[in-house]
Design brief:
424 residues, mainly alpha, Serine Threonine Protein Phosphatase 5, Tetratricopeptide repeat, 24 helices, 0% strand
Length: 424
């Protein structure tokens, strides 16, 4: 690259010499420093210095790292306080107090203060290039030496490091909490998700305990992060306790809060607590949404409690909560088709068929009507009447009309009056 005149970057050169140092080729590092230095490239020498001494310390070559501090300075690479701290800290861990003090004296006499903006930019570049291990290493130096850097750097480190090492990311989380820095909701959610993914439930609980001690949770959004991941981790009791804590603080859990706990109850076959939570939710003035109904309807159906599922489905339609996806529509159709002699009210079927028509799911609608014809032919006329009546009040009647037109020619007597009804 030097021969061809290809420019180096701080990121590229820094990561490269870090790995070279870890391989033990110190003479090659010196040669590279001289060659690159002579090219007059805009490389941040202080950042590169940290990478070099860290690489040496990682493989136990601490004395050479101390010597390298002087070599770097004499070559104009300007090691800052962070580079000196890396070497001094390694001597401290070794119990070598004499050399630790020596390096600290060098730091006070020769070192320069690190510029937080330089390391913020470097970490962001490392993350963008998916060099997460290197970003983690620089972050650990910043935390260990208590160097100044902006809050968004720690949030980025928590998020990206937790993707590959959730427990390792807790180092940055602990620092943010201890120093009362700003932890973003997205960072907390991502850390929690990755801890759950790796089954690190104890660590997850400790994260939430630490935040509660600092009074971090102040609104429903924040509490919902805790509730959702506690429930995802299977800690239903703790999730429900959070709902009660919210109420004590004057915060009203929203429908998502209840859905998280209700879904966790159903996953653990706790149907009675789930029904109790349903009653509690509506008693508190919180109305269920499509997901709320789907959770319990699915569980009732799974447990063979078809009548209870039908009652909820009817209530869902009565409340104007309509399925909004092919999966939900198919599930609703199957539920109605699973009933015995009582196949529900015509209104329920009309609402379902309208939803199917709007979703362009005519095949499912046709199969559903065939099932109704087999079970209770007399209801077909009421369903047809309801569909025709809906044309005059629908803001977008075309899908329903197309569905009805498609039903013509199928020799079903109920559609004999469709043309006159459609023109009304």
């Amino acid at each position: 690259m030097i021969v061809k005149g290809v420019p180096f970057s701080t990121l590229g050169f820094g990561v490269f010499v870090w790995w070279v140092c870890k391989k033990g080729v110190l003479g090659k590092v010196m040669s590279l420093l001289d060659e690159v230095g002579q090219c007059g490239l805009e490389i941040n020498g202080s950042v590169v210095a940290v990478m070099i001494v860290n690489g040496l310390c990682e493989v136990g070559r601490v004395s050479e790292a101390m010597m390298m501090l002087s070599e770097l300075r004499s070559r104009g690479w300007k090691p800052d306080f962070m580079a000196y701290w890396v070497v001094a800290n390694e001597f401290r861990k070794m119990g070598n107090v004499v050399d630790e003090i020596k390096v600290l004296k060098m730091k006070r006499k020769l070192g320069v203060a690190p510029r937080s903006g330089d390391y913020k930019e470097f970490i962001f570049e490392l993350v963008s290039e998916k060099r997460i291990l290197e970003a983690k290493m620089i972050g650990e130096v910043i935390v260990g030496g208590n160097f100044v850097v902006e809050d968004d750097v720690f949030n980025v480190l928590i998020e990206c490091v937790s993707d590959i090492d959730p427990v390792g990311a807790i180092v940055f989380f602990d620092y943010v909490v201890e120093k009362e820095r700003i932890l973003s909701i997205s960072s907390l959610s991502r850390l929690s998700r990755n801890l759950c993914r790796m089954s690190k439930v104890d660590e997850l609980l400790e994260v939430f305990r630490a935040l509660e001690c600092k009074n971090y949770f102040k609104d429903v959004e924040g509490y919902n992060v805790m509730v959702s991941w506690l429930c995802e981790a299977g800690r239903v009791k703790e999730g429900y306790a959070v709902l009660q804590e919210m109420k004590k603080k004057g915060l009203n859990p929203d429908v998502s809060s209840y859905n998280y706990v209700m879904e966790a109850c159903c996953k653990q076959d706790l149907l009675r607590p789930a029904r109790k939570l349903w009653d509690e939710m509506f008693a508190s003035g919180c109305c269920g949404n499509l997901k709320t109904y789907n959770i319990l309807i699915h569980k009732f159906s799974e447990e063979g409690q078809v009548q209870e599922a039908q009652m909820l489905l009817n209530r869902m339609f009565d409340k104007g909560v309509e399925p909004d996806s092919s999966r939900h529509l198919t599930a609703a159709s199957k539920l109605l088709c699973s009933l015995g002699h009582d196949i529900g009210s015509a209104e329920s079927h009309v609402v379902l068929l309208k939803c199917l028509a709007d979703a362009r799911q005519s095949p499912i609608a046709i199969e559903h009507l065939r099932w109704v014809q087999d079970k209770l032919p007399s209801m077909l006329q009421d369903i047809c009447t309801g569909l025709l009546a809906s044309l005059s009040v629908s803001k977008c009647p075309e899908p329903i009309l197309q569905f009805l037109q498609r039903m013509q020619g199928m020799n079903w007597f109920i559609f004999s009056g469709m043309e006159s009804g459609g023109r009304t």
